[in-house]
Amino acid sequence: MKVILEHGSFPVKNVKINISGSKSESNRMLILQAQFPNISIENLSESDDTKVLLEGLKTTNGTVDVHHAGTAMRFLTAYFAAKEDTEIILTGSQRMQERPIEILVNALKSLGADIEYLKNEGFPPLKIKGKSLQKSEVKIKANISSQYISALMLVAPMFPNGLRIYLEGKTTSMPYIEMTLSLLKSIGIKGGFSKNEILISSKKNVETKTLVVESDWSSASYFYSLLALSENAEMTLGSYSNKSLQGDSALALIYDSLGVKTVFNTSEGIISLSKKKTELPDSLLLDLSNTPDLAQTIAITCFGLGISCKLTGLHTLKIKETDRLLALKNELEKMGATIQVDDDSLNLEKATKINSNKSIDTYQDHRMAMAFAPLSLKTKLAINDAEVVSKSYPNFWKDLQKVGIKCVLENS
Ligand SMILES: O=C(O)C1=C[C@@H](OP(=O)(O)O)[C@@H](O)[C@H](O)C1
Ligand SMILES: C=C(OP(=O)(O)O)C(=O)O
User: Fold this and answer.
1) Which of 156, 189, 192, 295 has the most CB atoms lying inside 10 A of its own CB?
2) How far is the CA of 239 from the centre of ligand 1 (A)?
3) What is the best residue among 52, 176, 324 to mutate for testing ligand 1's pocket, by most ligand atoms within 8 Å of CB?
4) Residue 386 burial (CB count, 10 A)
5) Mind listing the domains of the chain with CATH numbers?
């Protein structure tokens, strides 16, 4: 499916968009709920990534296919490895079979896990024979993906003596590790994080509790981008808090310098966004190692605003849904940008033109589709394979129409 986008009647007045729960929080809570069934969850993410995890958790013997979901792959590897009486083949899409998992598998094997590679060494699919893991200390490289660390933390309560995790190298995507720790603590599991050491206690039962998922901040980024690229607009997004567990809530501060004002209404659990008159910086310089999922949105906003940017801390982008640095370079160049990328950074020059009537390829990456969509305020463009958005935000195109962007769907 292709979506052709035009400015349409944007901005619709008094529009409120309800974004479903954070997929990162949801997927952590589901792994915890599988261990402690008296936990209930509200505002669960509607994303494909959450649906596949939920389905996977119902399986004790057989094949689980997580498609493109990185967190589901990593969290379930640890979960099944530590769960007695399970025998699982854990697999995913072609791209998932190219996303490395050796660091996590080695850590689990050093704890006694029984995991075999079924195709290529270091990559899914995996054959996992679950058993009770008795050791209590593990070392893991922390500079490739924080998901490996969160995966170990989430199953640590199942270990008889808990787990002490030593992090090696510079830790990346840190807020996601902090989110995992906060959620464990919120259900009464003791844990701590100091320097390069994480300690999580063992736990058999927790008190009955309802966990409420805050809406997804990464999904909110596309509305921030729309606002930044608009002449004058406002909208409300729910449900958000000013005490978020999600690192991507840094959006509010980042987009403040790009002309978007955020007001938190804590009693109603909403944020009101509005375009403010502000002098834009000539150039934006940001280290995104704590918020890698915002890189595409920010680069494209800067392109649309005609300002240059240098984004660093992007070393994890190459092993996500696609090589995001290459995908961004290809598609931004199609739109008329001058951009250089290397393994860790992206350098975008001030745009002198924005090409019209281009079709953006999405590389099976939801964020490529959603990050380019706000450019429709500047020019007419089309997004190829637009259904990819369901990985994190199935209602994205509907919500975009609600705010007034004209979206014409074409079967391709
Ligand atoms: O733990 C999580 O929920 C996530 C961690 C991040 O991955 P990395 O740690 O691999 O950067 C992020 O990009 C991903 O979308 C979700
Ligand atoms: C990188 C992402 O997800 P995952 O790694 O969980 O597939 C994402 O949603 O941008």
Assistant:
1) 156
2) 21
3) 176
4) 25
5) 2-20+214-410 (3.65.10.10), 23-212 (3.65.10.10)
